[in-house]
Amino acid sequence: MSLYRPVKIGSLEIPGNLFLAPVAGYTDRAFRSICWDNGANFSFTELASAEAISRKHGRYGLDPKDLSQGRRGAENAEEDKGDDPNIISINLIRRGDREKLYAIQLFGGNPDTIYQAASLLTPLKPDALDINSGCPVPKVVKNGAGSALMKNPANLGRIVEAAVRASRESLGNIPVTIKIRSGWDSSSLNYLECARIAVEEGAAMVTLHPRTRAQGYGGRSDWSHIAELASRLAVPVTASGDLYTPEDAQQMLSETGCAAVMFARGSMGNPFIFSAARSFLETGSWEQAPFSERIAAAMSHLEMLAADIGERTACLEMRKQFCAYTKGITGGAGLRDKVVRAATIEEYRQIVNSYKS
Q1: Which residue in the list 135, 194, 315, 323 is annotated as catalytic?
Q2: Structural domain tally of the chain?
Q3: Cα separation values, 50 from 60, 90, 92, 120, 175, Å
Q4: What is the mean pLDDT of residues 66-94?
Q5: What are the backbone dihedrals phi and psi of residue 177, each rounded to the nearest 5 degrees, phi first?
Q6: Is residue 275 located within the same domain as residue 342?
Q7: Is 1 inside any structural domain?
Q8: 135 is annotated as an active-site residue
Q9: Mean pLDDT of all residues in 1-22
Q10: 78: pLDDT strictly greater than 50
């Protein structure tokens, strides 16, 4: 039996088990669409502040009128940037143009705020609602959100319950899922307890990134934690952490018994990882995407992003993305040196054309 198979999350049926993780600053709706073009089966928005969404006043408040319009326009994109995690643009949580099944990921430390924010998402029609209990960055953790919830399993349970209640009352009872870490640090590995509580409160899937908050993104993830969790839960367990190649996906699925794998950093600049992983899981072989496909995907990404946030901002944002798309190609360093100075789509196009010629 192939390791590539469908996944059922509550009432949601997903045709395959290759997911795109929520990655702050990278998994914008344009990139999620590109990943869908290349074989992703399910995708998650970047983490979005429940506090920002729940505000019903001010230009950062997302009321039903804002949501039903589908976009806020590019004119405010510059002001949306900054270090305040409670500032959010509508584009962060909209479905991508070619995104078939997606989840909106919320973060917050207050159950009432999670409930209010989730209840406002009705016009966006997400297919699932995900709770972030893994983000290690200080500006999220200091508010009791992200991986700080691993220190407070009782509050984690209350937040899941609030999300489930909002889903039942306002979102058509879509499944609520949660992404957790192994624990706060090596002396408090409580992923089993946190996952159990989340499921008891209604979570229909648990994603585990088997690092502690103290590890951040360094060191090695401990896949044995995934195997232990998958053996104990009745709901699907999705695995994240150190997935960079199709071979990694096969190894994780076969070693841990997880239901699905979630590509994060391994998909950055490489949306082709999904089709490659499926090919490897089904046939035992896969091929690298040629340069022409990588550049075509990058340019499509840039154009879709510009439509959302404006050409100038998109060109600035796309510099890091373009560097990821061109990683490892012959002469890529020279190409990247030019790209980081590009300020218009036409400049990007000229740089690419000159490289190809």
Answers
A1: 135
A2: 2
A3: 12, 13, 12, 10, 18
A4: 51
A5: -125, 170
A6: no
A7: no
A8: yes
A9: 96
A10: no
